[in-house]
Amino acid sequence: MTTPTTAQRTADPAETPAPDRRSPWTTVLGVAVGLAVAVTLMLLAFLTPTLHSGAQDLPVAISGPAPVLEQVSGQLEAADPDALDLTVVDSAEQVTEAVEDREAVGGIAMGEDGTVTIVTAGAAGTPYSQLMGGIASSIESTGAQVTTVDVAPLTEDDPTGAGLSVLGLPLAFGGMISAVLLSTLLGRQPWHRLAGGLFASVLVGFTLVAVMQFGVGTVDGDYVLTALALSLGVAAVSLTILGLQSLLGMPGLGIGALLLMFVANPLSGLATGWQWLPAPWGAIGQALPLGAAGSLLRSVAFFGGGGATVPALVLALWAVLGATLIALSAGRSRRRASRAPHHAA
């Protein structure tokens, strides 16, 4: 029997972890400062949109005879110059189409006989219906005959849209918890994590919409299409967090939680519609998964798909980004595995 030489018994310096020379107090200070910064940013993310939300450059379609059109437009602009962004269209039908296609939050159609039709969409957001109701009352006070038409009403069981307002947390939590569980249970199986994320997203989406439609009556559209829309939103959240965790480890989970829970959630506009948020935060929220998921759900459930293209593309891009990060992580793991025999030799 041969005894190991001194060189053989000596550990490879490349495999010996370098000692951590940082003081524990440095770690304590870093954690405390980082937590203070994160909590401050979280507070600002929730508080700032709430304090500065309101009617500002809201898109409203308007049509009618030129003299009346000029008079009413002037009155609305004088009442609040920054509240509305009026777009003149050729007919009452185009006013309705603009609201149904989600290009406008409301519309005003004035006829040759002096009648006025106010077009609203309750499902676009409660503040817009209230705003258009105020405009209707103002025009009616001049003696005009005013009719209000809601082209996308909320359901009778949930006339205030409360179910849509609280959707952000279940949507974010459903995507996050599935990512955490899959990352923990299938840590070294990236493709299984990807498949699990997709399957869980579909299951969560169909379950949530079943509760919203058949349980509390928040939505009443096509169940399958609405569920698929929400499933895409959950997939965008879940795959993004899975991808970040695959590439960065535990810090990736923290980054994903910070981005989705404390940035995307308050900027989503789920409770009011994104145009009610101050610029540019509403638009930024629509570029994030929760805001896009809320807009897609409204479009599919209440507007017959009107305005669904952009949020669907946003969600698809987030899902693809997450899948790409998972693929990059899998490739990195394969390269490390292929180098392991060489280092062992």
Describe this structure as you would to a colleague.
This protein has 345 residues and is α/β, with parallel strands linked by helices. The protein has two domains: 58-150, Rossmann fold, CATH 3.40.50; 162-336, no CATH class. Helices cover 63% and strands 8% of the residues. It has 13 helices and five strands. The protein has helices at 6-9, 24-52, 66-79, 92-100, 126-140, 162-165, 168-185, 190-215, 223-248, 250-264, 281-286, 289-302, 309-344; strands at residues 58-63, 84-88, 106-110, 116-120, 146-150. It has a five-stranded mixed beta sheet, with helices on both faces. The two termini are 22 Å apart.
Produce a short descriptive summary.
This protein has 345 residues and is an alpha/beta fold.
Ordered list of secondary-structure elements with their pairings:
Elements: H1 6-9, H2 24-52, E1 58-63, H3 66-79, E2 84-88, H4 92-100, E3 106-110, E4 116-120, H5 126-140, E5 146-150, H6 162-165, H7 168-185, H8 190-215, H9 223-248, H10 250-264, H11 281-286, H12 289-302, H13 309-344
Parallel strand pairs: 1-2, 1-3, 4-5
Antiparallel strand pairs: 3-4
Helix pairs in contact: 7-8, 7-9, 7-10, 8-9, 9-10, 9-12, 9-13, 12-13
Describe this protein with a few key phrases.
2 domains; five-stranded mixed beta sheet; single chain; elongated; 345 residues; Rossmann fold; alpha/beta; 5 strands; 8% strand; 13 helices
